[in-house]
Design brief:
The complex is a heterotrimer of chains A (354), B (289) and C (371). Chain A has 354 residues and is of the alpha/beta class. Chain A is 37% helix and 19% strand. The chains are: A alpha/beta (354), B mainly alpha (289), C alpha+beta (371). The interface between A and B is large, with 42 and 45 residues. Chain A: InterPro entries: SBP (IPR006059), Sperm_putr-bd (IPR001188).
């Protein structure tokens, strides 16, 4: 596979230079980070820049599916990428990233071992990513419209709420339907199971108001009275919707078929000319300033529980699952599907269906 | 000899840049697209190859033909509505408005929206058509409905409305030009020969503005066919259009070979549309002499 | 007028904004006549034609066609057809389709056989039966002009309006077409009303000519009346060539007047052109056709003297530019080469020449009438 890939690789830069804008090359001392909105907030990034004298430029993605195309098209631009746990393996296999020397990162050993030793974080005897932040994907509903209180994914398939349901425009829709159908390993479904999942999702289509693509879009769908029910990035959109005070409240819940868990980690792009700055950045993000900063701006959970005692206390610490790694076990942690292409094809077929 | 050399030099100075531009940014990408459509997807990326699997997949898997036909249907509806609304508007501007100043002003009103961001204009329709939107508010206020309707937004009708609104200037402009070019004495001649206004319209004005309609329809159809903003903003769960699929093949799915094959098919379809329209256009085109 | 009037205009006026195109025009056209509206651009001739055709609506007054009031009727309800200035052939139809157009409209749909026959007849009338399947843009200007005629005539209208029908053709073709137009009129016997700014065309073709100026009809009459007895210096100048020379009116008896030229020459027995009353000693203007002036003395003519200013060669003739003493405006006369022994006999610039003109060929007008 590696050899075959190598042949393709040599042609890629040529093709991309012709069909897409020519890449701009980063200069040394300036970190280019491809990450998520809220993960490079000035409130803590400025501290890093001052302390390290490394400048940073951040570009945002809307989905884990954005990383590979961006790296394939414009190789050489980015120094650090921040994919979720189900995507870091793909980055490694595609040859986009370098192994990490964990000894050079302060605080790495304090990170939950559930993450530092996880599959794909560690592969081929090397560490490939630095955990940054984690969270879950649960369900959300409008308390004034949905009754009785739902406890199952089944509510997303309830005809009673036709036209008032939103689903994330993502292959993870397959995981939700598969769990509802009671399939065991949602990341390695058989063709037959995938057909059933596909049929289930197509059956759901008439109930769907909109497949949402960004966090802001889902917030807006609730705010504009378009939907009452959806899956959600736990902690983020519910906070945003309720902050708008539209005269109703949204409530998150973990269905009995479990919620999904994710962990975003930092990877070093192969050929980066700024490895020194990159390692400084990794260390900073695992420090008190970095962890408190990102938890504050995103609302997700810290990966290094030792450093957040200054900013997360009592109830807050509990809500952010500080030292509650047991919570991970209640989640279905994301993995790269064994047959990613097949999953994407199924999801595209669902969307293409009438 | 010297003059000839200089002439040749200035020729190349003048044309080398546009020529290089055309080759580098049009011809080479098309060639690479055509070439890549025969490559093979091999996880995690793809490898050079020469095989027809991508095309076979596109023709055998109904999800692709469904999307292509849906896109054609939507583009055709947008084109039809644009003609139905744009033609009378252009006609009104050319033949009913007597004042040159007023006509220019109204024509500008048609064209000016093109200066406003496309996204903003599409977004406006989301605000109008939404459950909590202006249309529902108006209907509620008028007492026509007592519950907001959600039938206006997030479906194909909303896409057709939005795209029609966005692309209608491209229909009005060529029809306006075609109508303006019809000499007034042809209309007078028709009336002189006993044809009333409607008959004159059917037999003289309409055939002589065919070129404008064809140009407008071609543009509107191709622009709506390739659109990917309307499906995202106002399209519902069944609003996937061909550009969305294309985007996902080059993006999420990282299957550039399949994407290239799809692009090649779209390219061929657009060529067919252009060919047909230029045929109709040539048949309808007459010199006004 | 002996003829039955087919078109009448009674006090017809038309204004475009502040510009008055027509001031209360009265005009009667008899059935079968060939009447020409003649004048420079802006004189109102085209407006008059468009009002009759129905392309404009009169502000006031009345227009009748064959006795019926058509003032408010649209063009498609008038039994009139027009040959447009640039022919206005439908570019998307063949010649035959163009000619058949007026026979296929809803209000006047003819059965196919009759339609075919009339198209054939109309096309052979203009000698273009073989061009039926051509497109208009494949034809020459003269051919298009004839197709436009055929298209209008195929409807067998009571009146045919012709708007500068020959103006787009070159000189040779125009002259040939004039002859054809005249024959066509004689053959068909229908009424022709033509607009032109070409006085020569008007003279050749018309039974009567209405010379227009500033929204008025300056004079209407037969070509010879207009030529020989122009009512005003304007008409005299517009129809044919006229030498206009200022003079002083000295008195008249029995329709003949006495005048004095600025150089002192006294002319008596000259014709009073306009109906206006001239007072003794009043400034006047005399008009003399170039061909009425002769070089040399004559027993019967009035004697005049002038200085040659220039000699212009025109091929078959010389045109001499002359000046009377004390007169600024030039006077032109023609010297035909056949009338002189050799070109050397033609008076040279600077020489003084005696002239003569028959008294009735000098027409006198009040000077202000020239304005």
């Amino acid at each position: 596979m590696k050899k075959a890939y190598g042949r393709g690789r040599t042609l890629l830069p040529l093709v991309s230079a012709l069909s897409i804008a020519a890449p701009s090359f980063a200069s040394a001392g300036e970190l280019n980070i491809l990450t998520w909105e809220g993960y490079a907030d000035p409130s803590f990034i400025e501290k890093f820049e001052k302390a390290s004298s490394c400048k940073t430029t951040s570009t945002y993605v809307g989905s884990n599916d954005d990383f590979a195309p961006k790296l394939a098209a414009g190789g050489g631009v980015y120094d650090i990428i921040v994919p979720s746990i189900d995507t870091i393996g793909l980055m490694r296999q595609a040859g986009f990233v370098e192994p990490i020397d964990t000894k050079k990162i302060e605080g790495f050993s304090d990170v939950y071992p559930e993450f530092t030793k996880a599959n794909d974080v560690v592969a081929e005897g090397e560490t490939w990513s630095v955990p940054l932040v984690w969270g879950s994907i649960s369900l959300m509903y409008r308390a004034d419209k949905v009754a009785p209180k739902p406890d199952s994914i089944g509510v997303l398939f309830d005809k009673k709420y036709a036209g008032k349901i939103a689903m994330w425009d993502d292959k993870s829709s397959i995981y939700w339907a598969a769990r509802l159908l009671g399939f065991e390993n949602v990341y390695d479904l058989t063709d037959e199971q995938l057909e059933t999942v596909k049929a289930k999702l197509i059956e759901q289509k008439p109930l769907i108001r909109k497949y949402w693509a960004t966090a802001g879009e889902l917030t807006e769908l609730y705010a504009n009275q378009e939907v009452w029910l959806s899956n959600t990035w736990t902690g983020l959109q519910s906070k945003e919707v309720n902050a708008l005070k539209k005269g109703f409240e949204v409530v998150e819940f973990t269905p009995k078929e479990k919620a999904e868990g994710w962990m975003d980690s930092m990877q070093l792009v192969k050929g980066s000319a700024n490895t020194d700055c990159a390692y400084k950045f990794f260390s900073f993000m695992l420090s008190a300033e970095g962890q408190c900063g990102i938890v504050g701006s995103s609302g997700y959970f810290p990966v290094n529980p030792k450093v957040v005692s200054g900013c997360l206390k009592g109830e807050e610490a509990e809500a952010k699952k500080v030292n509650n790694i047991e919570f991970v076990k209640s989640l279905v942690m994301w993995q790269m599907p064994a047959r990613l292409d097949k999953y994407l094809e199924v999801w595209n077929a669902v969307k293409a269906a009438p | 000899m010297k003059a000839r050399t200089r002439q040749r030099l200035s020729f190349w100075l003048l044309f080398s840049l546009p020529l290089a531009w055309t080759v580098l940014f049009l011809i080479l990408p098309y060639l690479s697209m055509g070439m890549m459509s025969f490559w093979t997807r091999k996880f995690p990326l793809f490898v050079p190859d020469f095989q027809f699997g991508n095309y076979i997949q596109l023709f055998s898997d109904p999800q692709y033909s469904a999307v292509i036909f849906r896109t054609m249907k939507i583009a055709a509806l947008v084109t039809a509505y644009s003609v139905a609304l744009g033609y009378p508007l252009a006609y009104f501007l050319v033949f009913t408005i007597r004042s040159e100043k007023l006509r220019t002003l109204l024509y500008m009103c048609v064209v000016v929206p093109l200066w406003v961001s496309y996204l903003l204009r599409a977004y406006t329709w989301k605000i109008i058509l939404g459950t909590d939107g202006a249309l529902n508010s108006a209907l509620l206020w008028l007492g026509i409905i007592d519950q907001p309707l959600d039938i206006f937004l997030y479906n194909q009708a909303a896409m057709v409305i939005t795209l029609t609104y966005i692309f209608i200037p491209f229909m009005v402009m060529p029809i306006f030009t075609a109508l303006e070019r019809i000499p007034s004495n042809l209309i007078e001649a028709s009336q002189d020969l006993g044809a009333g206004p409607f008959e004159t319209f059917l037999r003289v004005i309409l055939p002589l503005s065919t070129a404008g309609i064809v140009a407008g329809a071609t543009m509107t159809f191709c622009l709506s066919f390739g659109d990917f903003v309307a499906p995202v903003l106002v399209g519902g769960p069944s609003g996937t259009m061909v550009a969305t699929v294309l985007q996902s093949q080059f993006g999420a799915a990282l299957n550039w070979p399949l994407g290239s094959a799809l692009a090649a098919i779209i390219f061929a379809l657009v060529l067919v549309v252009l060919q047909v329209s230029s045929k109709i256009d040539r048949a309808g085109r007459v010199s006004m002499g | 007028m002996a003829l039955q009037p087919i078109v009448t205009l009674e006090n017809v006026a038309k204004a475009y904004g502040t510009f008055t195109a027509l001031h209360n025009i009265n005009l009667e056209i008899g059935a079968g006549e060939f009447v020409t509206l003649l004048g420079p651009s802006g004189c109102g001739k085209t407006t008059t034609l468009r009002l009759i055709g129905g392309f404009e609506t009169a502000d006031s007054g009345r227009i009748t066609l064959a006795g019926a009031d058509v003032t408010q009727q649209p063009p498609y309800r008038r039994d009139i057809n027009t040959v447009f200035q640039d022919y206005a052939l439908f570019p998307h139809m063949t010649v035959a389709e163009n000619v058949a157009y007026g026979l296929t409209v809803r209000a006047n749909r003819k059965p196919p056989e009759e339609r075919a026959r009339r198209v054939r007849e109309a096309l052979s009338l203009v000698g273009l039966a073989d061009k039926a399947d051509r497109m208009p843009q494949q034809l020459s200007g003269g051919q298009r002009q004839r197709i436009a005629m055929a298209r209008a005539l195929a409807r067998e209208p009571k009146v045919l309006l012709l708007d500068e029908p020959l103006s787009a053709l070159d000189v040779k073709l125009r002259e040939a077409m004039q002859v054809e137009l005249k024959h066509l009129h004689q053959k068909l016997g229908i009424t022709f009303l033509m607009v032109t700014h070409d006085q020569q065309e008007a003279l050749v073709l018309s039974n009567r000519i209405a010379v227009m100026k500033g929204g008025h009809i300056a004079q209407i009459g037969s070509p010879s009346e207009l030529y020989d007895r122009p009512a005003t210096p304007y008409v005299a100048d517009f129809i044919g060539a006229a030498n206009l020379v200022p003079a002083t009116f000295l008195g008249s008896e029995g329709g003949f007047a006495r005048i004095r030229l600025p150089d002192g020459a006294m002319l008596s027995g000259v014709a009073v052109g306009s109906g206006e009353k001239l007072r003794e000693g009043q400034a006047a203007l005399i008009a003399i056709r170039p061909e009425r002036l002769r070089i040399g003395e004559s027993r019967h003519g009035l004697p005049l003297t002038a200085t040659v200013v220039d000699q212009l060669f025109h091929g078959g003739r010389f045109q001499l530019e002359l000046r009377f003493d004390q007169v600024e405006t030039p006077v032109f006369i023609d010297v035909h080469r056949s009338s002189v022994a050799d070109d050397g006999a033609v008076p040279q610039p600077g020489s003084r020449v005696p002239l003569s003109v028959a008294a009735p060929d000098v027409m006198v007008y009040a000077a202000e009438a020239a304005a």
